[in-house]
Amino acid sequence: MSAKSYSKIIGSNDRINVAIQGLGRRYGAYMSAIADKNNNIELSYLCDVMKSQRDKAAIEVSKKLGKTPKLENDIRKILNDKDVDAVFMATPDHWHAPGACMAMQAGKDVYLEKPCSHNPKEGELLVAYQQKYNKIVQMGNQQRSSSQSQEVIKAIHEGVIGDVYNAIAFYTSKRGPVPHQKKTAPPEGLDWDLFQGPAPRREYTDDTWNYNWHWYGWDYGTAEMGNNATHELDIARWALDVKYPEHVDVKSGKFHYKDDGWEMYDTMEATFRFAGNRSIQWDGRSRNGYDKYGAGRGTLVYGSNGSAFIDRDGYKLFDIKGKEQKTIL
After folding, report:
1. pLDDT of residue 150
2. So what's the pLDDT on residue 5?
3. Residues 126, 128, 130, 134: what is their CA dihedral angle, to the nearest 10 degrees?
4. Keyword Oxidoreductase: yes or no (predicted)?
5. 3-140 maps to which CATH number?
6. The pairing of beta strand 278-285 with beta strand 205-206
7. Omega before 115 cis (within 30°)?
8. How far is residue 219's CA from residue 37's CA, in Å, rounded to a whole number?
């Protein structure tokens, strides 16, 4: 028996058979964990509604794993496979909650990219499905897994900057003009009906499928609030140890490249007020690259005795005078 064949037998009862739905910008982040033999993971399927995405991913995955998983267009066929234990879901936003609910109903655990839902009601449905089917569902707020973030949040909760009362979560980007939508035939190899999935049906417009779905209205995307605010607001809520706000005030609009095809807000200022006189501000600017906070994204946390700056690279602690006390990067 070859070593390759023998390796498939070891721990076969404990092996986790997984599928990836959505083969765009995110799936590559899963590959190191899937390829790690200590995790005993078998990647059984690669699924995408675009043939070129499936073909490209098959080449890349075969290089890393030494074999090519089954390629599939329709996630429903994968969910019917009783040997699949879990699904990585990296689709456009409108598929997240419906796809996760379908997976749980089929007996699968789910790793769900942010945002977990396209709207608040879908978030409630996710919780209801998880409770009914008792499956594991993890949303992709990856910074929660950062040892530096865990360390500074623990210190904040232990009082390192005193009583925390406010956080500012921010994201700054230089996204440029977006072309206007133009009705055209779907690109070769795209299953447009499956792309739309649970969304209202409409004719295809160029170039919806390749990322611009984020900005072409509400059918598929959530703009920057769902695209990036989910990360920084999560850190802010974690640091302040708060759940649901008592009051929310939002000012938003499209202020840049006013004649282009971007149909969502590109700027948002939001204030969330919580019990105990705690508050969080969201400052999201998708298309103005001015570096207001000295970083492109992050979270500032204010306490009675100091403050903290937290981002994906680490954190900094400051005393009440603003003097830097500790830096972990």
Report:
1. 97
2. 40
3. -170
4. yes
5. 3.40.50.720
6. unpaired
7. yes
8. 40
Question: Tokens at residue 23, please?
Answer: 């083969």
For residue 273, give both structure tokens.
């007020």
Report helix angle 147-157 to 230-240, nearest 10.
30
pLDDT single digits (tens) 213-263? 999 999 999 999 999 999 999 999 999 999 999 999 999 999 999 999 999
**Are 165 and 300 in contact, with CB atoms under 8 Å apart?**
no
- State the pTM of this model: 0.91
Q: Which amino acid is at 76?
A: R
Examine domains 3-140 and 144-176+218-328 and report if their fold is the same: no
Residues of the chain below pLDDT 70:
1-13
Segments making up each domain of the chain, as ranges: 3-140, 144-176+218-328
CATH superfamily label, 144-176+218-328: Dihydrodipicolinate Reductase; domain 2 (3.30.360.10)
Torsion of CA 100, 106, 110, 115, to 10 degrees: 0
Query: Cβ(199)–Cβ(219) under 8 Å?
Result: yes
300 has which bridge partners? 168, 309
Distance, in Å, from the CA atom of 28 to the CA atom of 267, rounded to the nearest integer, reads 30
SS3 96: helix
